[in-house]
UniProtKB/TrEMBL annotation:
Pfam families in the record: SRP54, SRP54_N, SRP_SPB
EC number: 3.6.5.4
Quaternary context: Part of the signal recognition particle protein translocation system, which is composed of SRP and FtsY.
Taxonomic source organism: Thermosipho africanus (strain TCF52B)
Role: Involved in targeting and insertion of nascent membrane proteins into the cytoplasmic membrane. Binds to the hydrophobic signal sequence of the ribosome-nascent chain (RNC) as it emerges from the ribosomes. The SRP-RNC complex is then targeted to the cytoplasmic membrane where it interacts with the SRP receptor FtsY.
Keywords annotated in UniProt: Coiled coil, Cytoplasm, GTP-binding, Hydrolase, Nucleotide-binding, Ribonucleoprotein, RNA-binding, Signal recognition particle
Subcellular location: Cytoplasm
Annotated GTP binding sites: 105-112, 186-190, 244-247
Protein name stated in the entry: Signal recognition particle protein
Catalytic activity: GTP + H2O = GDP + phosphate + H(+)
InterPro entries given in the database record: AAA+_ATPase, P-loop_NTPase, Signal_recog_part_SRP54_M_sf, Signal_recog_particl_SRP54_hlx, Signal_recog_particle_SRP54_M, SRP, SRP54, SRP54_GTPase_dom
């Protein structure tokens, strides 16, 4: 997320590091670099203009805090300004029962996927959720929603599959007095904004009087997405946006421009193709990510949602007692994979530690394949692994006996280390060890 922008902005901070204080001269160069970074990230020029004016005023004004160094101060000013252009966090406003949410947007933006992701998120929050497939325009959109609905165990209504307005009217009858809290309507998009689509959406809006009209926009589409966001808002008075494909190499233009241009909030971001890959939009966390300060809060939240706490606690205890077997390790790997790919996890850490993600992912896959090829008994007691067993495991996991030996050696070393920890004797001096 935002690699290019992050890298360029960090060069701007560096011009100030080591400087005694912010002066008009040294800040000028840094601000120029920020301006270029934003323009290259495809941020709307009006937003850039105001952003730079505000940052210049704050950086050269009297607000500079004595406790911070010039580069830290500059980061703080940029962070505040990024948050300001993205607006405050805005939540769904679900007032009716059932509440209707209408999903709108152009074809390919990720509308159908986001409808199902949102249903999943709300279901996890305890809402009884229902989906309506009224995208009759894109072939396969209805079947796609039916499949996704099955996956998350949310019913999907699709009527005659032909007339969207009729489907919507029938769906309303279907959910009446049914106890559903939220009904999400997937509507038809087009490749470009056109009148037929807008008329259809206006008609559906009039029928539903929905609590939320969420427009789905593709972060990769840059200023085109911002322009269509503006047109949709003018016609439909949307209540918010879902910005998808933030996991791709989106440059930041959409996320930093849309609020300023439309005056409507981003409510969610799509961060991957999987059904769990939808996050509530937190401007301050995104600002931190853009500035390379990480997003530990989102990582913790994800861990709380996805991980089995009892299991992790038990595994942690076993580790401390040096009773950690390869079977436990297998369990732990399974749990951690629920948080997403390694690269996604590392991205949320401050300073995005420079590790070779591809290499680490590969190594983890090898470890997992080896452990999966063992019998439960071997995992619990690796001591029984003789040459022929190792050969069998290497063959089964598509690895080599050397790789099996390497894993066993690492495991033994880890156990030794845990024993030393337990005795309270640290094997190395932790002084100066930074967390
Ligand atoms: P629709 O025409 O707007 O209904 O688009 P779809 O929901 O079918 O999405 C189009 C494509 O974008 C599909 O391949 C989705 O898997 C993909 N997609 C949607 N949201 C995201 C996202 O947040 N990240 C990524 N990487 N892909 C997404």
């Amino acid at each position: 997320m935002f690699e290019g922008l992050q890298e360029k902005l960090s060069k701007a901070f560096k011009t100030l590091s080591g400087k005694g204080k912010i002066t008009e001269k040294n800040i000028k160069e840094a601000i120029k670099m920020v301006k270029l970074s934003l323009l290259e990230a495809d941020v709307n020029y009006k937003v850039v203009k105001e952003f730079i004016a505000e940052v210049t005023e704050k950086a050269t004004g009297e607000e500079v805090l004595k406790s911070l160094t010039p580069d830290q101060m500059f980061i703080k000013i940029l962070r505040d300004e990024l948050i300001r252009v993205m607006g405050e966090k805005s939540q769904l406003s679900l007032v009716h029962s059932p509440s209707y949410i209408m999903m709108v947007g152009l074809q390919g933006s990720g509308k159908t996927t986001s409808a199902a992701k949102l249903a999943n998120l709300l279901k996890k929050k305890g809402k009884k959720t229902f989906l309506v497939a009224a995208d009759t325009y894109r072939p396969a959109a209805i079947d796609q929603l039916i499949t996704l609905g099955k996956k998350i165990d949310v019913p999907v209504f699709y009527g005659d599959r032909k007339d969207p307005v009729k489907i919507v009217r029938e769906a309303i009858k279907e959910v009446k007095d049914s106890g559903y809290n939220v009904v999400i309507f997937d509507t038809a998009g087009r490749l470009h904004v056109d009148d037929e689509m807008m008329n259809e959406l206006e008609e559906i809006k009039d029928i539903l009087n929905p609590d939320e009209i969420l427009m789905v926009v593709d972060a990769m589409a840059g200023q085109d997405a911002v322009n269509s966001a503006k047109i949709f808002n003018e016609r439909l008075d949307v209540t918010g946006y879902v910005v998808t494909k933030m996991d791709g190499d989106a440059r930041g233009g959409v996320i930093l421009s849309i609020r300023y241009i439309t005056n409507k909030p981003i409510k969610f971001i799509g961060v991957g193709e999987k059904i769990e890959d939808l996050e509530e939009f937190h401007p301050e966390r995104i600002a931190s990510r853009i500035l390379g300060l990480g997003d530990v809060l989102s990582l913790i939240e994800k861990a709380e949602q996805e991980l089995d706490k009892d299991k992790m606690q038990k595994l942690g205890k076993k580790m401390l007692n040096a009773e950690f077997t390869l079977e436990d390790f297998q369990e732990q790997l399974k749990e951690i994979k629920k948080l997403g790919s390694l690269s996604k996890i590392v991205e949320m850490l401050p300073g995005s530690p420079k590790v070779d993600i591809n290499q680490s992912e590969k190594e983890l896959k090898v470890i997992e394949a080896i452990i999966n090829s063992m019998t439960p008994e071997e995992r619990r007691n690796p001591k029984i692994l003789n040459a022929s067993r190792k050969k069998r495991i290497a063959k089964g996991s598509g690895t080599s006996v050397q790789e099996v030996n390497k894993l066993l050696k690492n495991y033994e070393e880890m156990k030794k280390m845990m024993k030393i920890f337990k005795k309270g004797k640290l094997p190395f001096n932790l002084k100066g060890f930074k967390i």
